[in-house]
Amino acid sequence: ASGAIPELQSLLRSRTNRVILGFTINALTAIGLESVPGLSVAFSDPKQPLRTRILWSLRRLAFKGHTNECMPIIVAAVEDPDAKVRLQATNLLQVTSTEELSEFVFR
User: Between the CA of residue 94 and those of 88, 99, 100, what are the distances in Å?
Assistant: First the structure.
């Protein structure tokens, strides 16, 4: 699946269809650690409409054992210029289990 990362990253740059962006983020998250750099680049784009969803995906990856790669991005997002991103990052840092993370998405 890691061979699909370049194409998925390209889809993230398009920013035109939120449904496709959501599926793309999910696909990258399912791939795992190799997708963190691409998710990080997409998150760093202030025009990316699903930045908060990318944060959620990074938190999910952190629970899967990729804490060192994902948590610094989430921690730094606490100081993001976008208030929604700051709130999402703050809330995600308080999530302590995958079960709680699953519930968090539907709030």
Answer: 10, 13, 10
Report pLDDT digits (tens) over 47-82. 999 999 999 999 999 999 999 999 999 999 999 999
Mean pLDDT over each residue of the chain, to the nearest integer: 92
Residue 18 C-alpha from the chain's centroid? 14
**pLDDT score recorded for residue 106:** 41
Residue tagged 């496709």 (tokens): 20
The number of beta carbons lying within 10 Å of the beta carbon of residue 20 is: 13
Give the model's confidence band at 31: pLDDT under 50 very low, under 70 low, under 90 confident, else very high.
Answer: very high
Amino acid found at 55: L
DSSP code, position 44: H
Q: Three-state SS for 80?
A: coil
Side chain identity, residue 78: V
